[in-house]
Amino acid sequence: MLAQLNIIFDKIGEEHGRLNGQDFLVACPTYATEVEKKAMVDLIAACDIKPRRIRVVDSPLAAALGAGVNLRECYGTMVVDIGADTTEIAVLSLGGTVASKMLNFGGYRLDDSIISSVRMYYNFAIGRKTAEQIKIALGTAVRPEEGEAVTKKAFGRDVVSGLPGSIAVDSLFVYLAIKDHIEKITEVILNLLLHIPPEMSADIMESGIILTGGVAGIKDLDKVIAEMTGLKVHRCDNGSETVALGLGKIAEDPDYDFLAEQYSMLKIED
Description:
This protein is an alpha/beta fold. It is 42% helix and 21% strand. The strands form 3 sheets. A 5-stranded mixed β-sheet has the order 5-4-3-9-10, with helices on both faces. Strands 6-7-8 form a 3-stranded antiparallel β-sheet. It has a two-stranded parallel ribbon with strand order 1-2.
């Protein structure tokens, strides 16, 4: 991991100049322990770039900020961040996390389900990149009506003959492959709403739900969540970039310094 980070930072340095002595912001899940956060910070501190200061930001706060939420004035909003490996659902208020839940799956799990379903029903093997393309093109959170299914050709290898080939996959097939995971996400959203402080309910009814992350682009996912919760759902067009955009705002605007925490246990100081 250290070698990979050094390679990444070297490539960034080639385009934007050396990063030595810079401040670093790290987005971590709300449920990350102090030990896990320190391990991430120590990893970056050990890189060749020699950072000046490393601070940690909760991922939901960065995602909300990147989605355009004013965390200095926001009294209550819910963020659903469906990333590649995890799904984090959090209720935020005045720059803090009031309640949160995390699922240990995200977009990759949906890709794996598509791969498994294609192999099971078609005796055909496809790679993760192909599965991701199918998910993006055909993924839907609502069962397609008869005659409305969209079809896409997928290339891979026939399991029986071992020869390369292609099959036609439609949106109904993809819906059935991923629907259990979509239902699990909506169930956790409902469960969290049932356990938030009553005084925050009015705020969330007004502000609604921010849907972000790479999987937020799945067709009609926002409609499904809106129907199940009765709340407005705002889907971010650049969902896969909101955390990075939020970290950028924190780095550029001193008024958001309170969102970035520097632990006393860390060795790197101002």
